[in-house]
Amino acid sequence: MNNEKIVLITGANSGIGKAAAFKFAKEGCTVIMACRNLEISKEVQSDIKQTTNNDQVDLIKLDVSSFDSIREFCREFKNRYEKLDVLIHNAAYANHGEKYRLSANQIELTFATNVIGPYLMTMLLVDHLKKSEDARILHASSNIVKHYFDPKKDLDVSNLRGERKDDKKFSVYTMYRDSKVALVLLTFKLAEVLQENGIKVNAIQINGAKMSKETLMKFEPGWRMIARIQNLFFPPPEKFAECYFEICMSDHFKTTTGKLINDKNQIMEPTVTKPNYKMQIKQFTGSDLYPAYLENRDNWDKVWNLCRELTQ
Ligand SMILES: NC(=O)c1ccc[n+]([C@@H]2O[C@H](COP(=O)([O-])OP(=O)(O)OC[C@H]3O[C@@H](n4cnc5c(N)ncnc54)[C@H](OP(=O)(O)O)[C@@H]3O)[C@@H](O)[C@H]2O)c1
């Protein structure tokens, strides 16, 4: 029954996270919005409560790029709730065009927000997830992983601690791409590690959802213009909120773990085939294939070890 489900969504004040908070609340779940800007998020929270007629919509402050904030968040969450059924790592840093930035813990900000923070948060919440009869974790990845169809690509983790912070060639786009690859690798590894606890871990490949004005303003002007054009073709965030709900709540995905799932709710498969023109187009319209690089256990371990090392 949905009204017994406790659902935690990071970055629930904007875009897909906000649409998902509406969807889960509308379906009767208890929703915890984990957001860094309480002022903006309070308005969203009260809007969701009013629109859905569901009072069980909570808001707890979280900056997922900061270990202190994650620890404080998890303490507060555990004080308020006995268990956790659904954990959706939706928040992400993608300020294309920005310079190299370090998090409070001296980790490159894209990786700190999109990979290392979510890993730490999951680890701190495992005991609460174990108390659920049907615990599910979902990672929001992207079709940007398509770049790894190129067999020459390999995850570069040598510039995550400010080693080359003044490198003029630094690009948030590249870091973002690699963080989303790392997130899928982490999904597959975590699914294996948490299997004995009955916790399921999957990732969704998002092809593109309409971005809000606020999100567009985070990009540098050149990137903003590209994103505005893309926005003309992208579906609304509600489309992916429906996917989040299906993957995290339906009987269909009850036993599914360690999978990358597309926007048609299909389980994707790895391939070594170099993508032809048709496959490239399909990456935008909902492919069911992903690069074999993501299936390689050495790559899983590379990300796993990185997460452990950086959170020690
Ligand atoms: N939209 C697309 O085309 C697209 C395509 C592929 C993948 N995705 C993925 O889908 C997910 C949702 O994207 P979206 O389009 O809905 O983006 P969005 O509207 O910009 O939402 C991102 C959310 O993440 C939050 N966030 C960023 N840094 C944070 C931090 N350090 N701590 C806590 N929250 C933080 C933002 O909070 P603030 O409001 O405070 O900044 C915002 O709520 C992301 O993982 C994104 O990478 C999106």
UniProtKB/TrEMBL annotation:
Pfam family, one: adh_short
InterPro entries assigned: NAD(P)-bd_dom_sf, SDR_fam
Transmembrane regions: none
Keyword field contains Cell division: no
Keyword terms of this UniProt record: Oxidoreductase
Alphabetical list of PANTHER family matching this protein: PHOSPHATIDYLINOSITOL-GLYCAN BIOSYNTHESIS CLASS F PROTEIN, PHOSPHATIDYLINOSITOL-GLYCAN BIOSYNTHESIS CLASS F PROTEIN-RELATED
Name assigned to this protein: SDR family NAD(P)-dependent oxidoreductase
Classification of source organism: Bacteria, Bacillati, Bacillota, Bacilli, Bacillales
